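Handout, page 2. Input:
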Amino acid sequence: MHDAWKVGFLLALVVLGFTTSARAEALDVRMAGDGRIFGNFFLHHNYTGWNEDGTQTEDPVAFWQRLRLRTDFVTGENLSFRLGLRVNDENWGKGTFTVDQAEVSIEVYLAYIQFTWPDTEVKVTAGYQPVSMPQTGAFYDSPIFASDDGDQGASALVVTAPVWGDVVAVNGGFARFIDTNGAFDTDTTQVDDEFDAFFLTAPITLDGLSLSPWGMAGILGKGADVGDMAGGLRSAGSYLPPQGFEYNQTPYWWAGTSLEITVLDPIKISMDAAYGASANAYESSRRRGWFVDAAVEYTGLSFMTPGVYGWAASGENASLADGSERIPVVMPKWGPATSFLFDCDQALSDASMETDPTGTMGFAAALKDISLVEDLTSRLTFAMVFGTNSAAGIRRALAVTGGNGGYMTMGRNLAVGEQLVGVNFDHYYDLYENLTLTLETGYAQGMGFRSDIWGRRFAAAAAPAWKCGVGVTYTF
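Output:
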């Protein structure tokens, strides 16, 4: 009997081997990715050189390394699976890159199946995947829910279907951002510990014009631990007692549109608008607001693309009792023309002042895609940011949320009368077709920081910030 079991096991292995070989003949495996190694000189990050709450001092010089590896397993034209692995922006000398005592920090950041429904043009994508709400290319990526060019993911099911040829399409989906307790709650009492969202976009493409109206509705369970998302979803009034008195499931909703006009070519006009709100049990816990941006770029030059950019967003009023007047956000990534002031599409990490665009207005002017020397591309961006938040509102928010560096941070959030100015001059030189040498430089100055809001210690320490980052990127 024992020998028979062995024979059966060997036969099963042989059959499995033949089956795997047969399937492998139809399987196409494709790999791509990038590796980045760079060093940053960053003086007065957060305009102080400290961390957000002023308890630690940042090293002015740091060396970083990251790796992205994406593997596509493709079976025909209509079925594939993507797996993305990364070592995510680790310092030399710490974590993975520590001599002789390295820690493992490999993460799965993409894992999704994509297939076309048989005999249709309907595409289904399921798994941990990049998802963004529509946003024009002049502003990266979305101030509400962004994929950061695939570096941010969400567990989601997305269905894409053409409605009218190449003119109109519909994208609908469901995302589960958070399930705090997983499949089982902590005891026999069921707890609403999830944060879910449903979204719908309808991209419309016409000659000289593209339009993408969109909407998203979310349900936040009372027991969900939103972690770092709290600053973008909650109001300062929600920290007032009695804390935790909320609906079991609090609804959120957003609506917006993106618009690009190219009929005036070589002049390109871009516009975005969004409104979002929550419906908490207490008025003091509610959050609602709006965000708009617009840009004009001239694409008729072969050696550069000049452009001007502007935006405005609702800001906090003086009261906590009526909630927050800033638009709620989930996973934001936004910035005009890769401005050094905003965390957007910089090539290097730890490379911006991380200004929160909600509660601000401002403008930027840029010369993008400057190519006067072969294999060298440069960009020059100037930006100014003005606060639209009430000074009294921020002061009261800090008082109930634990002070500077928690719910709000000096220099990242701005009151009326506070301003930021930033300049960055960035360069990308192709040493080889797949190897790019990067130099990113930036200067930022905060003006009008008020000691009666942020405290005398922080306001007195405010100083100009300087950044210089140098690195190489290998893309394969």
